[in-house]
Structures are given as C-alpha cells and as structure tokens.
Design brief:
single chain, 6 strands
Length: about 100
C-alpha cells in the first residue's frame, strides 16, 4: 500500500539525489518515529546498514503491512524517511534548508 506521502517522499529523494549529490555525502538512509523520537538506520536483510531505503530490521510496531512472504511493505504514518548524519536524524524535507559544508 503506497500512500501519497510515500510517493512524495520518493519523488523528493530522487530530486535531491539527482541535483545535489554533494549534500548527501556522509548521510545514511534512516527512519524516525515522530511519536517516540526513535530512529533506525536502513538495513539490508542480514542487518547490515544499507545505502538505500528498506524496511528490513525496523521494529514490528512500525510495520503496518507485510506481503505474503512476511516482508514489510508499509510503515505506520508516524514513521518518516530521512538521513542519519553526525549522530542526528535529518528529515527529507529539511535537506533543502541545510547549509552546505565549507
């Protein structure tokens, strides 16, 4: 189940990655639960930090839908995508307002 919010996030990420790759240097894809403030890095299936967004390894309470194999395919609306950099979470919407590193 893909929501309009998911589509917007994917579009924003693609636009940002295509136009400002230098900004993304040192950033890891991550998710944050806005209600609890808890953040998790995106992981591959074996639990290794990934360079792309994936739902594997996220807490079960963040998952609202799974496919027939049990793999997560949709997240709770409180969970947002972003990046982890310098020990803090940066939401996708914040990327366009970040100062560039000198």
């Amino acid at each position: 189940m893909t929501t309009e919010q998911d589509s917007d996030a994917i579009t924003a990420t693609s636009q940002i990655e295509a136009t400002t790759p230098a900004i993304l240097s040192g950033m890891q894809p991550a998710f944050r639960n806005q209600r609890t403030g808890e953040s998790h890095l995106s992981q591959s299936e074996p639990g290794v930090p990934a360079l792309e967004y994936g739902f594997s390894g996220l807490p079960d309470e963040w998952i609202v839908e799974r496919d027939s194999n049990g793999d997560p395919i949709a997240l709770h609306p409180d969970v947002i995508a972003g990046y982890w950099r310098d020990a803090r979470f940066i939401a996708l919407g914040q990327l366009t307002h970040m100062p560039l590193d000198a």
